[in-house]
Amino acid sequence: MRFRTKMMITFTIMLALAFGIGGSALITASTNSALEQSREAAASSHRLILYTLSAVSGQSRNIQPGREYDALVDAVTRLDEQSGHNWLALRLSDDKDVIYASRMPGNFSDSLIRSIRKDQFAMLAFRGENGAYLIQIAGQFEFSARTLYFESVYDISLVYAARQRQQAIYRQLFIVVTIMGAAISWLLSVWMTSPLRRLSRAAQSIASGNMSCRTPLGGKDEIGVLASDFNNMADRLEQNINDMKDAMRRQEEFMGGFAHELKTPMTSIIGYADLLRGHAMSDDDKRDAANYIFMEGRRLEVLSLKLLDLIVLKKREFTFLPISILTIVEDAARLLKPVLLKRNVQLSYDCDGGVCQIEPDLFMSLLLNLIDNARKAIDGGGEITIRSKTREGMCEISVTDNGRGIPEEELSKIKDAFYRVDKSRSRSQGGAGMGLRLCDEIAALHGGEIEFESEPGRGTTATVRLKAEQ
């Protein structure tokens, strides 16, 4: 059973019990009060009649024997025949006989006079032969040295009839109040549980993957505090998931970047190894080739750790050294010489003596990426030109090729991770789409930027701008 239904049933039962107990107590109190008033009125009336009879008995001391009760009978008869009285029947008797009895003699109980005590009344409530509710009151007085008993009967059926009317009205009100209470309890339960339903929907939405879903509940009550705690939990959960996604993305970028960076030095290593294996070389050339293989292997080892710091750990604290751009361009040209010769690509450079604060391994990776991308854009032989010039505190390094070029609509996307202009060529040439994304990251690390200019069919120029050493 749902919580809202349980709440509605509980509230309705409590309301019905409260109204039932309260109404019953009110009707009972009202009936008892009316009965008490009827008893008091009957007792007062009976007391007045006894006072009258006592007065008559005081005036009848010299009456002839055998006629002593006549005055009493006359007095009781006159009282009984008066209009507007509130008694139902009167009876006068002694220890042996009934001296006078008014109409409806069957409404008297003969056992009451035996319970009378001196100077006191006896009262009995009973139901008459016709089902009426009656009160019989009995008292005694002295007459000519005899004890006489006077009894009066009063009809209190109106009190019980009023109680029945009240009970009938109460039953109708009870039904109406119960129905209204059920409706009100349903509305209250809907109102009180609506925040919980919104919390439930928010939890379901988060469980389905919508981590930005929040509940707008406010206030300082328990539900408001619960909603605030829920939103805080959702915020932390979303932050943790975003952190996990970001970590996974950085790991993917690292793996893609590392795989991309692995290709260029491995190509150089394979090229120099092929020279050592298949060509007759002098001892100096062999030593140079072995040295390049060793240096590229060491550079690859160091580069992997630096890429891990840069991409995964987002580290920005690297050691920057003042290095001549010409020096690093010459090193890059020597490393790629076997690869470029194999593809019949001519590499030339024209660099001034500008010096920049750079991280050697990362900046070398940037330069090698730009040269390698230029190489991949050339089909069947071509030229790559590297230029650098320093002016107004800035150093510009450009890598220009005369290859296929890049369509204008693609230029804004080429630095996105895993994006490739020509996907079929990139796959055949081993491209992973991470080179330029990584180059952009390295340029930003050096406080610089990369810009591209290209014309399809005529080639592309990539320009890196860095702050020059003052």
Task: Write up what this structure looks like.
- With 470 residues, this protein is α+β, with helices and mostly antiparallel strands.
- It is 56% helix and 18% strand.
- It contains ten helices and twelve strands.
- The strands form three sheets. A five-stranded antiparallel β-sheet has the order 2-1-5-4-3. A five-stranded mixed β-sheet has the order 7-9-10-12-11, with helices on one face.
- α3 packs parallel to α4 and α4 crosses α6.
- The longest helix has 57 residues.
- It is rod-shaped, with a radius of gyration of 58 Å.
- It starts with a helix and ends with a strand.
What's a concise summary of this model?
With 470 residues, this protein is of the alpha+beta class. 56% of the residues lie in helices and 18% in strands. The strands form 3 sheets. A 5-stranded antiparallel beta sheet has the order 2-1-5-4-3. It has a 5-stranded mixed beta sheet with strand order 7-9-10-12-11, covered by helices on one side. Strands 6-8 form a two-stranded antiparallel ribbon.
- What is the end-to-end distance? 80 Å
Overall pLDDT: 79
Number of helices: 10
Strand order of the largest sheet: 2-1-5-4-3
Radius of gyration: 58 Å
Let me know the number of strands: 12
Estimate the helix proportion, in percent.
55-70%
Output the helix-strand order: HHEEEEEHHHEHEEHEEHHHEE
Largest sheet: 5 strands, antiparallel
Share of residues in strands: 15-25%
Principal-axis shape: rod-shaped
List the uncertain runs: 423-433
Structural class: alpha+beta
